[in-house]
Write a structure and sequence with these properties.
Strand order of the largest sheet: 1-2-3-5-4
Radius of gyration: 18 Å
Order of helices and strands: HEEEHEE
Low-confidence stretches: 1-25
């Protein structure tokens, strides 16, 4: 039991020292709360029941986010794609075509 307690204390201490390494939007380090890298390729122009949203390249796959967080969406400029971003995402729990994701956090990457 004593060995596990020492292990957890060391792990906690390491975590405290790593937190300051997280960046913000003004440097090239990914923000802690938005750490996956992706590239917004543009809007999905198709007109079908399961179409629409935004094409995003993540780790070699092209996925679609049907919506983006409002505070990010309002800052998009039509001709700035492809746009490198940091994001937090999960697969859509009820996919229609199978490539949909839900974006919880997204920030521009320089």
């Amino acid at each position: 039991m004593k060995n596990w307690m020492v292990f957890y204390l060391l792990l906690l201490g390491a975590g405290i020292f790593l937190l300051p390494a997280c960046g913000d939007d003004e440097d090239n380090n990914p923000p802690c709360y938005c750490s996956d890298e992706g590239i917004i390729l543009g809007e999905d122009p198709r007109d079908c029941f399961c179409c629409g949203g935004w094409f995003i390249a993540i780790e070699g796959d092209t996925l679609r986010a049907l919506t983006l967080p409002q505070e990010f969406y309002t800052t998009l400029v039509p001709n700035e794609f492809p746009l490198p971003v940091y994001l937090e995402w999960t697969p859509d729990e009820t996919p229609c075509l199978g490539d949909e994701i839900e974006v919880a956090c997204i920030r521009r990457r320089e």
